[in-house]
Amino acid sequence: MNVTRRTVLYGAGLSLLGARVGSAATNEIVFTSWGGTTQDAQKKAWADPFQKSSGIRVRMDGPTDYGKLKAMVDSGNVSWDVVDVEGDFAVAAAKQGLLEPIDFSVVDRTQLDPRFTSDHYVGSFYYSFVLGFNKTALGKEPKSWADLFDTKGFSGKRTFYKWSAPGVLEIALLADGVPADKLYPLDLDRAFKKLDTIKSDIVWWNGGAQSQQLLASGEAALGQFWNGRVFAVQKDQEGIGISWNQNLTAADLLVVPKGTKNKAEAMKFLAVATAAKPQADMAAATDYAPINTDAAKLLPANERATLPDQHTDGQINLDMNYWADHREDIGKRWYEWQAK
Amino acid sequence: MSTTAMAFPGNRAVTRRPRRVSGFWPTSPALALLIVFFVAPLLGLLLRSVLDPHPGLQNYAEVFASTTYLRIFMNTFIVATVVTTATLLLAFPVAWFLAVAPRRWASLLFAVIILSMWTNLLTRTYAWMVLLQRTGIINKTLMSWGVIAAPLPLINNLIGVTIGMTYIMLPFMVLPLQGTIRSLDPATFRAASLCGAGRLQVFTRVFVPLVASGIGAGVLMVFVMSLGYFVTPALLGGTSNMMLAELIAQLVQSLLNWGLAGAAALILLVVSLGIYAIQFRFFGIRAAGEVE
Lengths: 340, 292
Hints:
The structure holds two protein chains of two kinds. Chain A is an alpha/beta fold. Chain A is built from 15 helices and nine strands. Chain A has two domains: 2-126 and 251-317, 3-Layer(aba) Sandwich (D-Maltodextrin-Binding Protein, domain 2); 129-249 and 325-339, D-Maltodextrin-Binding Protein, domain 2, CATH 3.40.190. Chain A has helices at 5-9, 12-17, 36-54, 66-75, 87-95, 135-138, 145-148, 168-175, 188-196, 208-217, 227-236, 263-273, 276-286, 301-304, 320-339, and strands at residues 28-32, 57-61, 82-86, 122-134, 158-161, 202-205, 222-226, 240-255, 316-317. In chain A, strands 1, 2, 3, 4, 5, 6, 7, 8 and 9 form a nine-stranded mixed sheet that branches. In chain A, helix 3 (36-54) packs across helix 12 (263-273), helix 3 packs antiparallel against helix 13 (276-286) and helix 8 packs across helix 9. Chain B has one domain (3-291): MetI-like fold, CATH 1.10.3720. Chain B is 79% helix and 0% strand. Chain B has 16 helices and no strands. In chain B, helix 6 (67-100) packs antiparallel against helix 7, helix 11 (186-194) runs antiparallel to helix 12 and helix 15 (244-253) runs antiparallel to helix 16 (258-291).
């Protein structure tokens, strides 16, 4: 998950030194994710029970690095068997032939949320971008994405995800009055024009930890956050609020890089990771939503209430297919606009 | 850091120089390692810049045609220049103190400098965030004292980047400087004074020229390191302070546009090597002149 993504990217130089030599033994697979508490939860909820039931050892690696994944597939020396990636990357990678097809005779597709399932990936967990705010610092509660752009009503800094990714542009358009069902294809000119109006009031966050720091301190008393991150701050601090109004969903997805020598074992792992109970355990540990439609039933009511799948009213799905086709063009414009 | 190596040339380079040639061979294991794990992959990336997605110079054309890249190149050099200057100004007195202070004090200060290098970079950068932000300790304190009415903009701009990076780069400037300063013979300054030079003259015409090689080494190291830096700028700077390395990392790891990344990396490398060559030549001659 991208929670610790940016922070761990900085360690990429180091991780190069630790690059694996040779391939994993047959009775072992390598699962790669983003590190931090998310991967700890994935280990506990998925890898440990899988190891017990199948006898196949699961080695943890990370952080996910798309450059590394591509290099492995290109060179035919694939040492990652299952990888947790972001939605738009999975769609793009499937188109580029970097992924093995999922074996749905092993993985039960009927229980999986169809929004996050395709021939080349299954969901890992899903989350929402929500409007998070610090009531203590603001003195009042913002209600909608439009409030993020209302610098008179809500003065001070607001924070957004720094990198070119699904989310910020959609928020700008929604705030500008574009109806949810007319979002795609994105009107980029309009989105950037809207963002221009608050550009000098934006503090960007690189990773989840930074977003929490900004919110908790009131440095940026409102902004766009991953729901799980706001919830974690809420547990520690009074006066932190969430507006689920038009929350934007995106999922992390599980993929199997093309050319892995442990394909059969990887599929068995996916079958366990996406099953109802392991998905419920994962959700309980992280406040991200399960992608197995039977998982929510297994959670106690109070835990379910904080999950994005309980806030589907007005919920908007970020369109990963659109993003997969345009991520490079949008990326270029995004950084050009930011650097201006 | 080879402080001792830097301390020696001033005194004994003349007698030691011939032995340097044979001194090359012990470095071969390190060189081999560098060639396999650094030079080869680097060449691979650079090759991609002319081969990916198809052979040609289109990646370079894209870099040079884009105002974004030019702006980010400019940012990178501005940040590196400002940081290097600030580091030099701060490091000079510290290096001086290290070289002339009583041994006990010097080693204590030395330990502080080295210890700070052992602390995780991200931790240190986050610490600066907590100090510098609008709701941070510095602004809150100043406001409660009534010194300022509104928070000073210390973060998400060039000021934040400069403070954070200068702090991180300080040891890389202090160490070569103090090595050079320590190797100086105090008698030189007495001689200059006896010949009628005032304090300022001793400093500008005797001291500074003598430590030029140390300054050169420190400036070069800090400048080149700053060019490739991005953790601290990413967290303490604003998006208008984006560094090239940050963008290259995005291209490689997220956008998978390795051709363009290779082109940007090569341009940065060529410019850095150019600066290195100029400085090396300049300070190389200076240092040689000292000895002969």
